[in-house]
Amino acid sequence: MTSPRPDPATLKTLADCRAGIDAIDGELMILLAERQAHVAQVVGIKAREGVAAAAPTRAAAVIERTRQLALDVGVDADLAEALWQTMIDHFITKEEAVLGKGGSDL
Ligand SMILES: O=C(O)C(=O)C[C@]1(C(=O)O)C=C[C@@H](O)C=C1
């Protein structure tokens, strides 16, 4: 169980700020592992249904949604896009290792 995070504006020392950053990184990593598990599940479904690893239409929608989510909470949309593009490219490579490059863009 994680403890509630302090308001960053109340942090006075570099060590406290870095401890907070480390805690947030830990939580982000848990969410990334959960997202990765969802993508792993996608691979079996795509194999059954003949859907391509690379899904450009879906990838573009994910990126567009991510840019909007970033703007909604005051995160730089270009940063969010770069992070998500890196993640999606990684998952396409992993999916193609199993599925190959064929299939439909669904
Ligand atoms: O939605 C899919 O088809 C996925 O495989 C997931 C995902 C993603 O990481 O969001 C990865 C690769 C695809 O090109 C599109 C999206």
From TrEMBL:
InterPro entries: Chorismate_II_sf (IPR036263), Chorismate_mutase-related (IPR051331), CM_dom_sf (IPR036979), CM_II_prokaryot (IPR002701). Signal peptide: none annotated. Pfam families: CM_2. It is an enzyme of class 5 (isomerase). Residues 8-99 form the Chorismate mutase domain. One of its GO terms (molecular function) is chorismate mutase activity. GO terms for biological process: chorismate metabolic process; salicylic acid biosynthetic process. The keyword Isomerase applies. The keyword Isomerase applies. Its EC number is 5.4.99.5. Keywords: Isomerase. PANTHER family: CHORISMATE MUTASE (PTHR38041:SF1). This is chorismate mutase. The lineage of its organism: Bacteria, Pseudomonadati, Pseudomonadota, Alphaproteobacteria, Rhodobacterales.
